[in-house]
Amino acid sequence: RRSSSDSYTSVRLSETQPKKRPMWQTVLIIIAIVILVLAFLTFLAIWVAVPIAFMQSIAFQRFIMFINVDSPKNPEYNNPEKYDIRGVINFYITTQDLDNFTLVNIGNWMILHEEEIDNFRERANTNQSASQILANTKKPIVIYMHGVACNRVKPVATYNVIRKHFLIIAPDHRGFGDSGPNVELSEAGVVSDTVQLFKWVRSKTNNDIYIWGHSLGAALSTHAVKVLKEEEDIVPMGLVLESAFTTMREEMIHHKLGKIFKWLAYFNQTILDPPERNGFLFRTTTNILSVDCPIMIMHAEDDDVIPYFLGKRLSEVASTKRNLTTQGKVFYHQFPSVGYKHISLTDDPKVPGYINEFVQECMEANKARG
């Protein structure tokens, strides 16, 4: 028989012993700890490791600047009909690398003016070269510089608009498509190739030559026009900039990827400054001051890659900091948010009229220059 003292002792022990936590509470605590640890590791990976890796790796910076991936994949350059375009010649030119020793093979598409497509088809079996076509065409020429994440096959829709006005030479930049896999991809290198391509075209024809750049290609085009003037004393008839930015630094700040890191105290030191130290400048607002031909800038308000206000700001710089009388007028066309976004503004029905207006101004400006 238990005594009253034993009962009292057991009661006291039960009161002093901690109560066991329910299993569901334990599970919740473990889950919360795991989530916190994963969140911390994710923070370290995204907002610490990535900026540091970007700061330290030139290869990482180069890829982010150019995004030189094939789109479409496995392109068939000698089979343009696969991409619903005809009157196209695939050809190559050789340029000299910046060291003046290494040769660079640059792949190009020549897209004939739509009025000359049938002539080309009639003579398709004569192996007519790109050089011969340039010598015989009566149409003005435009060198079209594409942007990132594509090759010379992708802008077919744009080609079909532009070819109503020009014969198009569309190169792949070194490191893109099948161009220059043996040389370093850099702003200076692409600009050098473009200058040499322009001179090659100029050596084959006396027709007017324009340059048209889209996105990153707009920055490269503007830089090339500057070099043509300052080093070769050559001025193209006109420069068209589609979906352009001011500087790479500003584009990185406003790009959706840049916004992920923009709030970091070390954003400048790890993201913005390193590319500039390694020559990835793309300072279009500076280079455009040396452009001595008329300029047309076009941008869509719903561009989700390069904000339209950067294109507008570029047009303002070109309009206010150049001598419009001696260097050429600036045309700026802003398209409403109707779905054109970054790559489709040439679908707008007003674009052909804008091109005609621009070409007319370029001819008048060229006549005034004598």
In short:
The chain has 15 helices and eight strands. The protein has helices at residues 4-16, 23-56, 58-66, 117-122, 130-136, 156-162, 187-204, 216-232, 248-254, 256-261, 267-277, 284-287, 308-320, 324-327, 351-369, and strands at residues 88-96, 103-111, 141-145, 167-171, 209-214, 239-242, 295-300, 330-335.
Can you put this structure into words, describing what you see?
Helix content is 47%, strand content 14%. The termini are far apart. The model has no long low-confidence stretch (mean pLDDT 92). An eight-stranded mixed sheet has the order 1-2-4-3-5-6-7-8, with helices on one face. The protein contains 15 helices and eight strands. The chain has helices at residues 4-16, 23-56, 58-66, 117-122, 130-136, 156-162, 187-204, 216-232, 248-254, 256-261, 267-277, 284-287, 308-320, 324-327, 351-369, and strands at residues 88-96, 103-111, 141-145, 167-171, 209-214, 239-242, 295-300, 330-335. The radius of gyration is 29 Å and the shape is elongated. The protein has one domain: Alpha/Beta hydrolase fold, catalytic domain (Rossmann fold, 3-Layer(aba) Sandwich). α6 (156-162) links the parallel β3 and β4. The protein is of the alpha/beta class and 370 residues long.
How helical, in percent, are the residues? 40-55%
Q: What's the oligomerization state?
A: single chain
Shape: elongated
Task: State the distance separating the first and last CA atoms.
Answer: 126 Å
Q: How many strands, which pairing sense, and closed or not: the largest β-sheet?
A: 8 strands, mixed
